[in-house]
Structure formats: C-alpha cells, structure tokens
Amino acid sequence: MNLKVCWMYHDIMDLYGDKGNMMVLKKRCLDRGIDFTLDTCGIGQERDLSDYDLIFLGGGADKEQISLIPDLLARKENIKKAMDENTFILLICGGYQLFGQYYIAADGQKIEGLKFYDYYTDTGAQKSRCIGNIVIDANLDGIQTKIVGFENHGGQTLNVSKPLGKVLYGCGNSFDSGFEGFYDGKILGTYLHGPLLPKNPVVADFVIYKALKKRNPNLKFEDLKPLDSGFESKARQTLFDRFHIEN
Length: 247
Ligand code: GLN
Hints:
The protein is an alpha/beta fold. Helix content is about 25%, strand content about 30%. The protein contains 7 helices and 14 strands. Strands 2-1-3-4-14-13 form a 6-stranded mixed β-sheet. Helix 1 crosses helix 6. The protein is globular and about 50 Å long.
C-alpha cells in the first residue's frame, strides 16, 4: 500500500509545528510497511489534487491566508473533484477557516472562502484571541478519543453543523460555543496545532485509515497494525493531569 499526500501551501501555512503532522504520518506509515509519498503544492504550482489520498492544509497568519486565496479559489473545482473521489482532507486553523463561507480578518478585511460548508469565521469586534492549550472529546466514526493541542486564533468560527468534538479545556470554534472543529467523514478541520498528530496517535492513525480507504475501500481501522505509542501516552497523561481531565 502507498499513502499519497499533498501538503498545500507548505511554505506559508506552517504555524506552531504543523509540519510535524507530515512527519508523524510518514513515520506511522513506514513503521507499518506502507509507502509514503509527500508532494507539496505552492502558489501557482500545477497539481491534480484528485490524484492524492490526503490533502493537508495547515494554519497561517491573516497576511498569509490573504496571499494564497486567489490560488486556492482557482483550485475549487479540482478540490471538489478530489473530495468527490474520496480524497480525505485535513485542515488546521487557517486552512480550516478557508473551507467555509468567509473569514473576516483582524483588520476587518473579508476573505472569501471555498464555501464548501456553511460555517463562517469572524474575528469580531472584541479582537481578543483564543490562545492556549486545548483538550476536546471527539468521536471519529465511532472511535471515542480525547484530542490535545494548542490553539491560537482570532477568528471565531460559527454555524458549525458537525463539530469535531466537545471542548473539555480551552476555547474551540469560538469563545463560548463549547465545541471544536468540524468533521463530516470527508474533511477534518480543527484549530488544534501543537502540532495535532504527534500528540494524538489515534487521530494520526484515523487520518491514515481514511486516506488509504480511497484506494482500499474495504479497509477497516482495526486492519492498521498496532504501533507502540508509549511516549505519546505519557505526554498526553501529563496534559490530562495538568488540566484535571480523566483519561
Ligand atoms: N489567521 C487566523 C486567525 O487568527 C488563523 C490563525 C492560525 O492558523 N493559527 O484566526
């Protein structure tokens, strides 16, 4: 088996170690004997995104989001084709925001999104940011798991029909929504940097599974060979203890 990944705007959307997500996917694939191909897609670079099992888009500052938007919107049909052909999509923070209707940045500028979903993001009048550690309780196609990470966003994402999880500690989609991220089986969008996958091996394996399913429709999550995640478990436990959260 081979997992083919395209990391979009790798050179500008890479906040708080988002690159680590790609390193973890590679390691957890190779440890299982699954080949791993990582391509990048910068502004203006020709790519057929529907050719990939997974598309990844990380987070970025407002300036960076604004700089890539013409290129991203020009790829809308190609991204739609990829989604229709079961390419799985992992989006962090700034990338997550851009799959919705729009993002109103800190200076009031409105950035049009891809409009694949009804959610929208507005920095709002208060101009304060959601910053700090975050823990959520998520259900991934029946797999119940706590996800830990770090968030830093001014944007408040509203009208989220299918949140990824319930906030146990931290902020999430908006200051008082109580929910975090978006997951509908086709895309997983989240505010969790940190980066997301090294601290959350279940999520890493779930992303691998969802992506591999494109070319292996009968694959089950349980078919992935178990790996030793001892260090990750200890790191997670430290955070759960710190925030008084039962594991
Ligand atoms: N610029 C966006 C915001 O502040 C996204 C930030 C990020 O990706 N961490 O809301």
